[in-house]
Description:
The structure is a single chain. The chain is an alpha/beta fold. Helix content is 31%, strand content 27%. Strands 6, 7, 8, 9, 10, 11 and 12 form a seven-stranded parallel sheet that branches. A five-stranded mixed β-barrel has the order 1-2-5-4-3. Helix 2 runs parallel beside helix 3 (117-132) and helix 2 runs parallel beside helix 7.
Amino acid sequence: MQHYLGRIENGLAFLEESDLHHLLHVKRAKIGEEIEVSQEGITYLCTVESIDPLRLLVKGEREDAREWTGKASLAFGILKGDHNELVVQKGTEIGLSAFYPFLSSRTVVKKEGPEDSKLLRLRKIACEATKQCRRAITPEVMSYKTLESILSLPYEAKFIAYEGEAIHGKGFADVLREMPEIKEKSVLVLIGPEGGFSKEEAKEAVNAGFIPVSLGKRILRAETAALYVASILQTVME
């Protein structure tokens, strides 16, 4: 079943122009066909009542929940190449709520501006991935931030993946299992860039309330670490 993001009003569903084109000219919708349209976290079952003009009649809300009860977000150092796109795309499919790309002392790539083409591209990818995996909410991709601003974000549970500061090498999954109410909380996980965090940055994060955790015995690439963290969160939050 086709899934779109749109607007629900007076028993009808309205799509953006790009989605209208996709539904009519790519998928060649037919009268009587059913599709899903999500708005503000709620997914509606709709029927194509007419083609020209397109009229989508709302039949009712879908009961199957695809969003986590809590909110899990990822802050990651800006990466080289298309690795940022991979993190946002797969993180969206797994179920993350927001992405915070940030600059730190060891970030290799420098931003062009607060709304540069790369950032806009990441937001488009998040939207496309939301439709593909039939989520009801598109994760936010925030404007580039400094590490200092990330440390002050108001999340209920905050973690930093940093082996050097992990307490007795305790793994991320083990730490989450010790927090039975984590499914209901807002969670933020901090992942470093290709060069990792400096010792000073890691200590600043710990002082700001971030719990240091290990991601295992092997050294992971930054994008691998991000998706590994997202997978663990999915296991726990769902």
